[in-house]
Amino acid sequence: MLEKNSRIALDAAIVDEAILSRRSVRAFLPDMVDDETIRDILTVAARAPSGTNMQPWRVYVTKGDVKQRISDAILNSGIRAEKAEWDEYRYYPDQFFEPYLSRRRANGFGLYGAIGIGRREVDRMRAQHDRNFIFFDAPVGMIFTVDRRLNKGSWIDYGMFLQNIMVAARGRGLHTCPQAAFAPYHRQIRPVLNIPDEEIVVCGMALGYEDTSKPENEFRTDRAPLEDWVTFAE
Fold this sequence. Notes:
It comes from Mesorhizobium album. The chain is α+β, with helices and mostly antiparallel strands. Helix content is 40%, strand content 12%. The protein has a 4-stranded antiparallel sheet with strand order 1-2-4-3. The radius of gyration is 19 Å and the shape is globular.
């Protein structure tokens, strides 16, 4: 029994570390990630649960020239992020309210503060946001899509699949950044990847090795205490 409990504790520590060390990294090293590792991560992630095992995810893995073409198509579109049209689905509410407004502001101020961008430096904020579209210099950029005929349950399943990718990446010493910012630029992305019209662009994700020398990677978000959002009922 003691040996079993020790093994359980060790397994829990490994899993917990992968989850707790996951964060949105916004500066990557150019070191390439080999295809076998990417395949392993996606294979593991695909064990995510999905209603009636529909497995609604579809992934476009990009590197090199193709990844650059996606970046160029978006950055040369002339469509600023604040003007981009969320016409396939809406990620955020039209009007933020508490407690979400305060959390959003703390996140933005914390990130920009870490890299020395003041609250009125709009041009520098835009430049930082545009780094989304070069996948924060990560060597691998993934675009995720879902069949538009599917319903909300499949989007819940999709979230579990995305989390699996990010946790599996941590287990291999890699980092990620999930990026909803790509979604409103589906018109620019579609022709590059030949994405069919029946697929909605859900998000992108950067994958690679963290550049620990960059100040933006020193920023850490906090989490609300359990008492704020958990109800125990017996």
